[in-house]
Every structure is written in C-alpha cells, then in structure tokens.
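Q: What would this complex look like in 3D?
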Amino acid sequence: MSDEESLKVVVCGGGNGAHVLAPLLKSRTGVEVGLFAPYGEEASLFRRGIEEAGGILIRGKGDRPLGRYAPDVVSSRAEDVIPGARLVIVVSPAFAHESILREIAPYVARGSIVGAVPSRGGFEYMARDLLGPDITLFGAQTLPWACRTVKFGREVRILGQKRVLGVATSPPSRVGEVASLLSRLLGVKVYEIPNMLAVTLGNVGQVIHPGIMYSLWRRGRDAVYGPDEVPDFYASVDEDTAFHLAAMSDELVSVARALQARTGLEMGHVRHIKDWLLESYSQDISDRSSLARCFQTNAAYRGLKAPAVRVGDGKLRLDFQSRYVSEDVPFGLVVSKGIALLTGTPTPAIDRVIRVASSWLGVEFLASGGLHPEGLARSRAPQRYGIDDLDQLVSATQGEMIAREVLATV
Ligand code: NAD
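A: Here is my prediction, written as structure tokens for the whole assembly.
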C-alpha cells in the first residue's frame, strides 16, 4: 500500500482554490478527503452542489473536462472533518487563516502536517502559536493554479497551471518529506525552499500588487471609469511605477542578505522581481529591455484589469481595499517590514506604500521607528508573536517553540 492509500487529507477553505484542490485530491488513488468550509453557508452549498451534480467538475484549458470528484465529507464544523487527518491544507486568502486555524486547533493531531497554499508572510508564527509545537508546518510560495469557480460546489475552471511550486517547512528538516508528498498529491513539481522566512521575503505579490495599486492611486485616485475604461493592472506599469517596484524589491533583497549574513539562514531564494519575472514568464515576455517593458509585454498578464468597485450609474472606481491590498499589505509588506526592523534595514519605498495603504484600510501599521500596535494586531509581523530580536527569529524559523509566557504578554 502506498502512503497515499492510507492518508486522510483535509482541505480548509471554500473559494476558487478549494474548489480545485478538494476534487483533485480525491482523484488520487485511495486518499480520503475532507473539506472544512466554515465560512457562511458554504458547507451546505457544497453538499447540495455535490449531491445534485455528483461531484465537482474540474475543467482545464479550452474547457476540457478533467474529471468530477467529491470529497468524502464536507462540513462547517472542524470536529466533523479534522480528526484523523495527517495532512491539512489551508487554501484561502491569508486574512481567513487565523479564524480557520483557531477552529481546527483543538482537533489537529500531534505529528500531523498543516500548511497553507499559498502561505503569504508569517504563516508559521501564527500557526505555531495556535497549533503548538508538535506539528510540522508548511507554506507554499503560491497557488499552483489560476482558477475560478464556475458554479459553487459543482464546477471549477483551471485557467493556467504553474510549472513548479516552492514549499518550505517549519522545522526546515521536514521539507523533503513534505515536498515529495505534495508533489505526488498535487501533480506539480514541488521544489524545496530552505526555510519559511525565505517564503515570506520571497513573496513577489507583496511588491507587485500593493506597489502597482500605489502607482495607480498616485495617478488617479478619484478617477471614475466606464465599464470598459478600467485600466489594465500589469500593463499599467510605466517607468515610474517600475522604478518604485524595483526599489521595494531591492529592499526585500537587502533584508534577506542582512539576515543571511547575520544568522546564516539560507536566503538565496529571495530574488529581485525582474529576475523572478524573467524566470517565471520566460516564454511570455517579448521585450526584456526594462522592468516596465517586462510587465507591459508579458502575454500572461494581457487583459488583466485593475480591481474596481461599482459606484452607481454603471461607473466604477479603483478598489483600494481589494485583495491586492487587504491580503498583501498585512500579510505581506507589514510582515517583511517587521523582519526589516529586526535586521535594522531601512525600507523607505516599502514604508511609503504601507503608509498609504493604512489610509485605504483604515488601520495604522507604522508608528515612529516601528510598528503601530493597532496594525501589529491585524498583521503577522513576527513582533506580534513576541519575536523581538534575531535570535528569536532564528528559533521561530527553525521551528523551535515560541515560549507561551512570551505570547501571553503580547
Ligand atoms: P477566494 O477569493 O476564492 O477566497 C474566497 C473564499 O475565502 C471564500 O469563499 C471563503 O471560503 C473564504 N473566506 C473569505 N473571507 C473569509 C473569512 N473572513 N473567514 C473565513 N473564510 C473566508 O480565494 P482563492 O482564489 O481560492 O485564493 C486562495 C489564495 O490563493 C489567496 O491567497 C489568493 O490570493 C491566492 N491565489 C489565487 C489565485 C486564483 O487564481 N484563484 C491565483 C494565485 C494566487
């Protein structure tokens, strides 16, 4: 019997990614799959959809049906699905991680593996705090699919699949085992990232998403658009925006280098966004002459619009509280800023974006010389979890338990 034939896996979430992952896992021989969907009425919608349609249909490129599969159990109650799970995969926006982890915590067995796909920044601090020391944690750098739910609980479409998926673990020594398990289960090539800190700092979404929103805001914060006039998102990157994105990315690379020099943690995974773009979209970019041209001529980004909300009369305005801000600032840039404070690395370009995003989200993230308590409590910066110096950061990254008495004082 292979490992998977005796494996119970639980997917936590109810959005696009969960619609792909739950049936996909069920397509693997003998894997028992639970779906924990605690949000609103989603669990009953899933159950009804699955019952009426006979499973969730996954469609691939050109709408080609790839199979219809149903998880073995779907529930909004953690106690119905989590017991017995050896692997728990959270697939939701990062702002939903905390409530999901709190609900599953009493039922997660010692020795099991719990992670998020994607993890965004600082997942390990929150998960270690809520789940305790005896769990292997993992974080994936991204979601391996671009996907959209077509009919809730019935059908999902995979628009594109990443060639490779980077994964790190806490403790880092478990990465080989987890990478090989995920690779077999997800059907993608999974490469090992040496530690979860590198996933946090190497998350390019935290640069690209809030950085472009910041530039769009500077250009036309009050603009109102007709339905066909909303600007392109990635193709809007001009030389000025690219200069700013490069400055943010330079700062993250500097933080990573300072960390490696002072702690010995391997940070080579944290690269500049231009290098990342050229590697990730090697076939899609037709003009590599500048960072701006890489964004403008990337076929994979073509036609993708900036997030916008309706303001009446069929008009729209840019949505500065969209996922690109509400996920990528508190669970991206603010976490990286917290780490930069521990290395003493200045981050003026990142600070500018966090300050403006604070006004969009109505939360103060920065205080003079540090993090504001209000924003800290809404983020996953290491300081929220009592990690106040590099030694503590190294211990947390190596998966050593964060002392409960420290947490109690935060
Ligand atoms: P999604 O937008 O479909 O997530 C919405 C779901 O999140 C809801 O249906 C609900 O189940 C859950 N949720 C929302 N608010 C919640 C709350 N307050 N409490 C509990 N649950 C809540 O998300 P997705 O598209 O599945 O993306 C998952 C992650 O993958 C995100 O981090 C996203 O940025 C990333 N990602 C997605 C894609 C994609 O193509 N879908 C591509 C790349 C990265």
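A: To summarize the key features: The two ends are 47 Å apart (CA to CA). Residues 239-263 form the longest helix (25 residues).
Q: Very helpful, thank you.
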